[in-house]
C-alpha cells in the first residue's frame, strides 16, 4: 500500500473525465489516499464518490470572442490559485493527468512543486493525437500512457517512456466481446455523446428517409440518443414507418445496448472508438469537425483503415456508400464474419492494471 497521496487530474468533457474516474475507482480499492481534481464542467460526470476525495477548480478554454477570452483568463487564474492550495494541502507524490485544458493550471503547480514534494507525473492520452496540455507537459512526465497502438509523432522523442495501455474501463467483466455470427434482428444504435448530437440526428433522418423504401430494412430496431428538443420529430418519423425503437436523452443501461448492437451511427471520440472495438460494432462515423487538432477524424481512421467502419460528413455526399454498408451488415453473413475477424485483431488490454503496474514498478525502483 502506498503511503503518500495520489492526485488524478481531469476535467472538461466526458471523454477525459470518465476514463480518469474509472482509474480512480480502480486505485481506491486498495489505496485510500487517492484524490480526484476536476473543473466544474467535468464534475457533472462524477457521482457516487466521497466528496472529501474530490477537488473542484475553475477552468476555461480560450476560444471565442474577446470577452469570453478575458473571462476565461480570469477563471484560469482563479483555478491556478485553487490548484496551488490543493497541492500545498495534499503534497502528492504521484500525479496522473488525463489531459484537457482543465489540467493545465494544476500541472503548472506540479512543475513548481515537483522538486519540493518529489512528485512523479504520469500522463494518459485518450485520443490518437496528443492533446495540447499533454504535449506541453510530456517532458516532465515519468511515463506517457496512450490509448492506441500507433505512431504519435508529436512525442516521438519520448518513445522510450511511452506505453500503449488502452483506455481505462469501468470494468473488464460482463462485456459481450464475441457477438454471434448469426443474427435475425438488427439493432441500430444512434448516439453522439456529449457533443454535436444534432448533426448526427439530421444524418439519421436522411438515412431513414432512404431505407424506408427498401424492404430488407423493415425489421431494424433502433436505439436513439436524442436531446429532448428533437425527440418528437424522431418519434414521428419512426412511428410513421412502423419501426420499433427506444429513444432517450441518456441510456443508463448503455453497456447492455452495446452488447446487442449490430450497427452504429456515431461520433469518434476515444471512448466511442473503444466501445466499437470492445463490442465489435460496424459503424457509420461522422467525426466532430470542431474537435481540437481534428483528433476525432484521426480516431476514426483507427477503424476505417481496418475496414470496420466508414467515414461520412454531415452533407451526406457518400449516401451510396452508406446504403451499401448497411446492406452488407443486414444481408451479408460473410461480410459480418469477416468484420468480426477484423475486430478480433485489435488487442484488448486491462488498462487500469497496466497503468498501475507501471506506476508501482517506478516506486519500487526508489
Question: Topology, pairings included?
Answer:
Elements: E1 6-9, H1 14-27, E2 34-39, H2 40-43, E3 54-57, H3 66-90, E4 94-97, H4 104-117, E5 120-125, H5 132-137, E6 143-146, E7 162-164, E8 186-190, H6 197-211, E9 220-225, H7 228-240, E10 244-248, H8 254-259, E11 263-266, H9 270-279, E12 283-285, H10 295-304, E13 309-311, H11 319-331, H12 333-344, H13 351-364
Parallel strand pairs: 1-2, 1-4, 2-3, 4-5, 5-6, 6-7, 8-9, 8-11, 9-10, 11-12, 12-13
Helix pairs in contact: 1-13, 3-4, 6-7
Number of strands: 13
Shape estimate:
globular
The CATH class of the largest domain is: Alpha Beta
Q: So how many helices?
A: 13
- Stated plainly, the CATH topology of the largest domain is called Rossmann fold
Order of helices and strands: EHEHEHEHEHEEEHEHEHEHEHEHHH
Question: Which superfamily, in CATH terms, is the homologous superfamily of the largest domain?
Answer: Glycogen Phosphorylase B
Largest sheet: 7 strands, parallel
Q: What would you say the CATH architecture of the largest domain is?
A: 3-Layer(aba) Sandwich
Q: Give the helix proportion (percent range).
A: 40-55%
Structural class by secondary-structure content: alpha/beta
- Mean pLDDT over the full residue set: 89
Quaternary class: single chain
Based on CA atoms alone, the radius of gyration comes out at 22 Å
**How many angstroms does the end-to-end distance come to?**
15 Å
Low-confidence stretches: none
Strand order of the largest sheet: 3-2-1-4-5-6-7
User: How many distinct folded domains?
Assistant: 2
Q: How much beta, percentage-wise?
A: 15-25%
Amino acid at each position: 500500500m502506498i503511503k503518500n497521496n495520489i492526485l488524478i487530474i481531469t476535467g472538461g468533457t466526458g471523454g477525459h473525465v470518465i476514463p480518469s474516474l474509472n482509474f480512480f475507482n480502480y486505485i481506491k480499492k486498495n489505496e485510500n489516499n487517492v484524490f480526484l481534481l476536476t473543473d466544474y464542467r467535468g464534475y457533472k460526470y462524477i457521482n457516487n464518490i466521497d466528496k472529501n476525495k474530490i477537488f473542484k477548480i475553475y477552468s476555461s478554454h480560450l476560444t471565442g470572442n474577446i470577452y469570453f477570452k478575458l473571462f476565461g483568463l480570469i477563471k484560469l487564474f482563479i483555478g491556478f490559485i485553487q490548484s496551488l492550495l490543493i497541492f500545498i494541502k495534499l503534497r502528492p507524490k504521484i500525479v496522473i493527468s488525463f489531459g484537457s485544458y482543465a489540467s493545465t493550471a494544476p500541472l503548472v503547480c506540479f512543475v513548481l512543486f515537483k522538486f519540493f514534494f518529489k512528485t512523479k507525473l504520469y500522463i494518459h492520452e485518450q485520443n490518437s493525437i496528443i492533446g495540447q496540455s499533454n504535449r506541453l507537459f510530456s517532458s516532465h512526465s515519468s511515463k506517457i500512457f496512450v490509448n492506441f497502438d500507433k505512431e504519435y509523432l508529436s512525442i516521438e522523442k519520448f518513445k522510450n517512456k511511452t506505453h500503449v495501455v488502452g483506455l481505462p474501463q469501468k470494468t473488464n467483466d460482463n462485456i459481450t466481446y464475441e457477438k454471434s455470427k448469426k443474427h435475425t434482428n438488427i439493432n441500430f444504435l444512434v448516439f453522439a455523446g456529449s457533443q454535436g448530437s444534432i448533426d448526427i440526428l439530421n444524418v439519421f433522418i436522411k438515412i431513414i428517409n432512404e431505407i424506408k423504401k427498401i424492404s430488407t430494412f423493415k425489421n431494424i430496431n433502433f436505439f436513439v440518443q436524442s436531446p429532448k428538443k428533437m425527440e418528437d420529430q424522431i418519434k414521428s418519423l419512426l412511428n410513421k414507418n412502423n419501426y420499433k425503437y427506444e429513444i432517450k436523452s441518456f441510456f443508463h443501461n448503455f453497456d447492455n445496448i452495446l452488447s446487442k448492437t449490430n450497427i452504429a451511427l456515431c461520433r469518434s471520440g476515444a471512448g466511442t472508438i473503444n466501445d466499437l472495438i470492445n463490442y465489435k460494432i460496424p459503424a457509420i462515423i461522422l467525426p466532430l469537425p470542431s474537435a481540437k487538432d481534428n483528433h476525432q477524424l484521426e480516431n476514426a481512421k483507427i477503424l476505417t483503415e481496418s475496414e470496420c467502419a466508414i467515414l461520412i460528413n454531415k452533407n451526406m455526399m457518400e449516401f451510396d456508400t452508406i446504403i451499401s454498408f448497411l446492406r452488407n451488415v443486414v444481408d451479408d453473413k460473410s461480410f459480418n464474419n469477416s468484420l468480426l475477424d477484423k475486430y478480433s485483431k485489435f488487442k484488448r488490454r486491462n488498462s487500469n492494471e497496466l497503468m498501475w503496474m507501471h506506476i508501482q514498478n517506478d516506486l519500487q525502483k526508489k
